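Reply to dn_fold:

You asked what the input looked like. This is it:
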Amino acid sequence: MSIINIRRKLITQSSSSLLTPSHQELANAIRFLSVDAIEKAKSGHPGLPLGMADVATVLYQYFLKFNPKDPTWYDRDRLVLSAGHGSMLLYALNYLTGYEDMTIESLKNFRQLGTHTAGHPEKDHYLGIETTTGPLGQGLGNAVGMAIAENLLRTQFGEHLFNHYTYVIAGDGCLMEGISHEAISLAGHLKLSKLIVLFDDNHVTIDGPTDLSVSDNQLKRFEACGWEVHAIDGHNPDEIYKALQEAQQAKVPSLIACRTTIGYGAPTKAGTSAIHGSALGEEEILKMRKALNWLCPAFEIPDSILSVWRDFGKRSDKTYQSWQNNFAASKPAIKQEIHRRFRGELPKGIQEDLEKLIDHFYHQKPTLSTRILSGQVLDVLVPRLPELLGGSADLTGSNNTKVNESHTISTPQLVGNYIHYGVREHAMAAAMNGINLHGGFIPYGGTFLAFSDYCRPSIRLSALMENHVIYIMTHDSIGLGEDGPTHQPVEHLAALRAIPNLNVFRPADAIEVVECWESALKDQKIPSILVLTRQNLPFLRTAKTSENLCRRGGYVLSEDNKAEVTLLSTGSEVSIAVEAQQILKMKGISARVVSLPCWRLFEMQEAEYQKNVLAPHTLRIAIEAAVPFGWEKFIGPEGGFIGMHGFGASGAYQELYKHFRITAEATVELTIDKLRRNR
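and this is what came back:
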């Protein structure tokens, strides 16, 4: 006899003896909470919750390790709903299993402003929502990162403290997205055996049957990437149970292709695209209630069914208590270290280490590229911060992301602190989000700034979720030279600066590199991008200060109280501004130089500080080897801009700066012309 069909036990409730609800009845609780909430909102996606209810029921009943009373338990299983449009599946599950903040009122207010139950899941660990999903495939990439984090922590601290699975519910759309190819390839390469993907294989998309647009053999695709695969009937609890059981024993990641009917149970709409993203309507729901023998009013779950679901929420209580005992018995230093890392607290001494490096740079006055200087910062940080988990998308030597104490992660047991992501920029960024979401790590990853476009959807989600991730983007302008316009980013700074809650740092010299790294480490709820040069830059910060000036976002590098011109710049062009200042001085024109390494932080400063830095009574000229978009707010209508107005070209960087007139001489010429016109 199968595990699913074991003789039902008698339970006592309200003084009456009732049979334990059947699997179908338990799954129907998910289905009707979902359709009722979607119908009330007149908006939502019922197809996936109806189709995957059977799979979710078996997963929660027998496999998922979690504790609704402690949603941030370090050793909980992670469940990622990559197909985020099916959000009501997750909300219904978390209500049924007893997450305190996921109330029936939350479900009734599905998709309404100010509620926990947004149209797509938004990260809230206390609600059992591990990550923000909706853009298809992102959750799959996040899950790869979570599985990496779990594996590394298990190696570092032992199986008695970290030993959990990462489950993903993904749909056809997730697996069509390009990020899925990158993510499953990386997961297979790393042999992430505790990663299990539950594929809602319903053969239907928004437009209609999947064969309108794809004919992939998903099982063979995953097999080719080194995964174990299963194909099952997604409505057969015995098959679901067996596949999950086997997946847990696999030595590689697992795909379980669950053949389902989209909108299962809806009499006239099931199996069609019509049920993907629209409320069923009152008539269809009434027919569905009759067809599935669900006689309860909207949002009402019989006590006999709800109590069993609540028991599923308590199923891991013994495991949880055992883990608590193991954690309590651990050495104090181990407990403190785990808490520190999961709370995002930096160890003592980091500030002092960075200050020593700054002193060293003031003494040496290095004239190096900011990418090399960033590597020198990492040389200091990596040995002191075990939570730093680095990597690069096949540009390690160019990004300077791997340092003396970086050790490449190896398989099958993951050991190390550096990931060779391969040419998978998108999956790298999504995995970094997952690594940070899991807890215990601050991930950083590198690529060229021009390839930030490949990462952008995940960068946006980093900002939306307030993830502590650090992106290192090198070769930041026409300054990379001979690789030409395909590799020369001109519009990328503007595009990245447009993303809310994202610090885009473009340091100008060694001191600014350290200060920007310090800010990136300390801002726990803000992702950061370090935009770095290939070419060497002069040492500019000659006046030593105890304040992290980059933390202000902008500051006066060279003051002149009698100045009639303010030269504003970032990164490699700050040195051009300094040179232009000197030429202007010889011509009898006083100018001041302002460095603006992080626009967002500067705009957060008090108005008086901004005014003092920008000096609006002066003519303001901006210099940046990028398009002018955005600079108008700093230079005003009378100001000028030296920079790019189109794409770059192939050639030595010195010649390119001259060709595109991003020089001190061109700056002086524009300044004099503007002053003449304004007088």
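Residues 1-18 have pLDDT under 50 and may be disordered.
Hope that clears it up.
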